[in-house]
Design brief:
The protein has 3 helices and 47 strands. By secondary structure, it is mostly beta strands. Among the domains are: 75 residues, no CATH class; 172 residues, Alpha-Beta Horseshoe (Leucine-rich repeat, LRR (right-handed beta-alpha superhelix)); 165 residues, Immunoglobulins (Immunoglobulin-like).
């Protein structure tokens, strides 16, 4: 009896086991079928073509629906709810939608070669999916594709992916490896978290990435890729032609502390690319041409910036608020420091600017109190408002001659400034330019006409400050309502007396201005064109015309000087010159015996001449050479110099003409060999 009972129990157990090991099956495409073994929790899909959701498909199985009711919590009954693994056929070409979404127990799925797209949400909320590898045929990963795969640790996107949709890895808290291809073009939004609104730092995802994130030359997206905390050790940006404005890494500050590397293909840094990214070093490659607006602003860990020689522009706010930068060198091709470029760089102590900088914009260096030295470039023409507001350490400053305007509040609170030199072309200084507790004791203004100022421009400079101006302009400054309140010595500052020749050319004229000499009996100007004398002028000690000789008909060239200006400068207008032509000249101060006391030489060009290497000024030959007789054997006295090739040369006068001796050969100023 007991034996019969045992046999019956065994049979019942076997029957129960067979009842439990159910195999479901159905159709999931025109040429695809599926079967699911409940005992192994494995689904097998066979055939070829696109995987679809049909009435007889994966979760609309008739047998399951007939065994339940619609009002029942249907997910409890569906086979995919317990499915752990899937086998996909080699003939699979794609997926019609989010077919595997909410397969909570799915641990593995191998995608065959030939599939080109991972649709949006395909594996969304597959909580047990730990690893995925895509074939090289896949070029698109849709939005939310792996969202909420909370145990996934590794995702290899293959070698063909060009597009990754937004929030593709949202809430993948354990993901430590993401590898995408070198042909990636677009990341369409925040792929690691997905919150498009202002976020709470306590709520954002933490992604423990350990891979280098490499953005290849093909990358061109301008969407943010992350709002989350992630710990990728290295980010390599090698995008060659992304959008000019890109916020890909915006707001990684406080959360990312890795290395950021710019690859060799980078031609520019998009605006806002690394705004508020926690990075320590910026090294841009040779070939990079410009830095966009706000590209690195707010990086409070950035302490090293190395810029390439190919850089031509740094746009506004590029390094604003980078509070750890101490030193920066601006490349030679950069022509402007734009507004707020370095404002708030509170640790900045030294800036090396090339001579070619023409503009310093508003607030360019505002809030940089530790700058210990500023040398303004010679080609500078404009200084913007508040450009150096709050700079305190430097005690002297020279405004270059080409500067035309100085903005409002430019040197506000520059409390250590004691000596100020203002160039000859400044015509306007803005309101409150020197506002604050001023320590200025000496101002030198080289402008012939007092620059326009308002009541507040100079208000905070003490009345006791000494003002030095050009001798010819002293009366104008004394009578000025604002400049006139400063102290001015009775004897002109010797430093303000001109010591070189300047030439201001027009279309057919040129105004010569030169320092006078109390011992001069007359002055002689010889002008040469193509190595031959074009005209000779002899002037009296006060600039009156004594003699004139032109190679073409002469015109009246009046002097505009008076006896009162004799100890200082003379000006003379030469007319009858040719348009767009280049000239050389020699100007001599002669004593009673017509021997030179001082000799100046130089070149200039009338308006329209194509060359940009014409100086328009002159230098004095020291010691002063005598006029040498026309004796080829005579050894001339002159000034020795070195030409561009390194050879020694001597400049001297011969019968009033300036010549150059190089070894045994003698040349004119134009390079014509005469013997």
């Amino acid at each position: 009896m007991k034996t019969k009972v045992f046999i019956i129990l065994v049979c019942l157990i076997g029957m129960a086991s067979n009842l439990h090991a159910t195999v479901y099956n159905g159709v999931c495409g025109e040429h695809l079928t599926w079967s699911y073994d409940t005992e192994t929790a494995h689904m097998t899909i066979e055939g070829y073509g696109e995987l679809k959701n049909t009435v007889d498909s994966l979760w609309w199985n008739k047998q399951v629906l007939q065994a339940s009711s619609w009002s029942t919590s249907y997910k409890t009954y569906y086979p995919y709810n317990s499915c752990k693994t899937i086998s996909l056929p080699e003939g699979l070409t794609g997926f019609s939608g989010a077919i595997f979404r909410d397969w909570w127990n799915l641990t593995a799925c191998e995608i065959p070669e030939g599939v080109t797209k991972i649709p949006g949400s395909l594996f969304e909320s597959c909580y047990q999916l730990k690893e995925i590898k895509l074939p090289n045929s896949v070029d698109t990963v849709g939005q939310y594709a792996f969202s909420n795969c909370t145990t996934m640790v590794k995702c290899d996107l293959g070698k063909g992916v060009k597009y990754i949709g937004q929030m593709a890895f949202q809430n993948c808290y354990r993901l430590n490896s993401v590898r995408w291809s070198d042909c990636l073009e677009v990341i369409d939004g925040s792929i690691f978290d997905g919150s498009p609104e202002a976020y709470d730092p306590n709520d954002v995802a933490t992604i423990p990435l350990r891979d280098t994130l490499f953005f290849p030359a093909t990358f061109r997206s301008n969407k943010q890729i992350s709002w989350c905390i992630h710990y990728s050790p290295v980010i390599v940006w090698n995008a060659k032609n992304p959008p000019a404005s890109s916020r890909v890494f915006y707001n990684l500050y406080n959360y990312w502390n890795g290395d950021f590397i710019f690859g060799p293909d980078v031609e520019f840094v998009p605006s806002g690319l690394c705004q508020q990214v926690r990075m320590k070093k910026v090294v841009l490659p040779e070939g990079c041409k410009y830095i966009g607006a706000g590209a690195f602003s707010g990086n409070n860990q950035l302490d090293t910036v190395l810029l390439p020689s190919t850089l031509t522009a740094i746009h506004q706010e590029a390094f604003k608020g980078c509070t750890k930068i101490k030193h920066i060198t601006i490349p030679e091709k950069v022509k402007a420091i734009n507004s707020s470029t370095f404002s708030g760089c509170s640790a900045l102590t030294r800036v090396e600017m090339p001579e070619g900088i023409s503009t310093i914009g508003d607030n360019a260096f505002a809030g940089c109190p530790n700058l210990d030295s500023i040398v303004l470039p010679k080609e500078l023409t404009m200084i913007g408002g508040s450009a150096f507001s709050g700079v305190k350490l430097q005690d002297s400053l020279a405004i270059p001659d080409k500067v035309i305007s100085i903005g409002t509040n430019t040197f506000e609170n520059w409390s250590a400034l004691k000596e100020l030199s203002i160039g000859k072309n400044v015509v306007l200084i803005g309101d409150n330019a020197f506002k604050g507790d001023s320590a200025i004791t000496h101002i030198s203004v080289w402008a012939a006409t007092p620059p326009a100022v308002s009541e507040g421009t100079l208000a905070d400079i003490p009345d006791s400050a000494l003002l030095s101006v050009l001798p010819d302009s002293r009366q104008l400054y004394r009578e000025h309502p604002y400049w006139g309140r400063f102290r001015m010595s009775d004897v002109p500052d010797s430093a303000m007396i001109q010591r070189t020749v300047t030439v201001d050319p027009g279309q057919t004229t040129a105004t010569f201005t030169w320092p006078t000499d109390s011992a001069a009996h007359s002055y002689q100007i010889d002008i040469y064109k193509d190595g031959a004398v074009f005209c000779k002028l002899t002037l009296g000690p006060t600039g009156q015309l004594l003699g004139i000789a032109f190679s073409m008909p002469g015109r009246k060239a009046p002097s505009n000087q008076s006896e009162s200006s004799l100890p200082f400068t003379l000006s003379f207008l030469v007319t009858g010159l040719e348009k767009a032509s280049r000239y050389n000249y020699v100007l001599c101060a002669l004593d009673e015996e017509q021997k030179p006391i001082h000799v100046y030489f130089g070149d200039f060009a009338t308006t329209g001449y194509p060359g940009d290497d014409v100086k328009g000024g002159g230098n004095e030959i020291i010691p002063t050479p005598p006029i040498i007789p026309d004796n080829p054997e005579a050894k001339p006295a002159g000034i020795e110099d070195t030409d561009v090739s390194g050879h020694s040369e001597t400049k001297y006068l011969l019968n009033g003409q300036l010549l150059i001796r190089r070894g045994d050969k003698v040349f004119t100023l134009t390079g014509q060999e005469i013997r």
